[in-house]
Amino acid sequence: MHASDERTAERAVDRAFAAAPRSAFLPPDQRDEAPEDRPIGIGEGQTCSQPSTVRAMLLLLAVAPGARVLDLGSGSAWTTALLAHLVGPTGRVDGVERRHDLAAWGRDNLQTLQLPWAQVHTARADVLGWPQGAPYDRILVSATAPRLPESLLDQLADGGRMVIPVRTTMTVVDRVGAELRQWEAGQYRFVPLIVPESR
């Protein structure tokens, strides 16, 4: 990516952060902690990731306006809202959260910001991702996987990109036709991704 493209991407992410403040996606008694660059618990063993990590992941994801995006592990829907601002009303974001109460809270948060092109779905116990919305131009995974999940790779469009923590390594996967090109982008810690067992 050229320096001018990087600056454009950074400005787009900064605008998304300004439009969807983290405080709106935290429990009321923790909103004063929103500026702190650390994960903050949001209940049920889940966290709202630290802003510097989310920003780095969004820059790696390189989301374009009009893109179709899967946000796996959406939690309170902060990342879903950020992605919605990046894709704009011509795009679509499917957030997926496996905990019913968190998914419902995330839907309420999105409704407050009036982002109808973004939705939060409650995950099915036996399905990873949201196959009915595939293929996706971009997939963001906010939980650490033991390996690259085949079921998510199947939901990635040709020319698409997935950003996912694998064990402790942030991993970027680009699909070019039948080929998958993979590279690493630093060390991070996340809550574990629950991968349904193969049948």
Describe this protein's structure.
The protein is α/β, with parallel strands linked by helices. It has one domain (3-187): Rossmann fold (3-Layer(aba) Sandwich). It contains 5 helices and 9 strands, in the order αββαβαβαββαβββ. The protein has helices spanning 3-19, 51-61, 78-87, 100-113, 150-153, and strands at 40-43, 46-48, 68-72, 92-97, 118-122, 136-141, 156-166, 169-176, 179-187. The protein has a 7-stranded mixed sheet with strand order 5-4-3-6-7-8-9. The protein is globular and about 45 Å long. The mean pLDDT is 91. It comes from Ruania alba. Belongs to the methyltransferase superfamily. L-isoaspartyl/D-aspartyl protein methyltransferase family. One of its GO terms (cellular component) is cytoplasm. It holds the Pfam family PCMT.
How many strand elements? 9
Question: Number of helical segments?
Answer: 5
Can you tell me the CATH topology? Rossmann fold
The secondary-structure element order is HEEHEHEHEEHEEE
The low-confidence parts are none
The percentage helix is 25-40%
Averaging pLDDT over every residue, what do you get?
A: 91
Strand line-up in the sheet with most strands: 5-4-3-6-7-8-9
Overall SS class: alpha/beta
Whole-number total of structural domains: 1
The end-to-end span amounts to 41 Å
Global Rg:
15 Å
User: If classified by CATH, what would the architecture be?
Assistant: 3-Layer(aba) Sandwich
Region (Disordered): 20-48
Subcellular location: Cytoplasm
Protein name: Protein-L-isoaspartate O-methyltransferase
Main location: cytoplasm
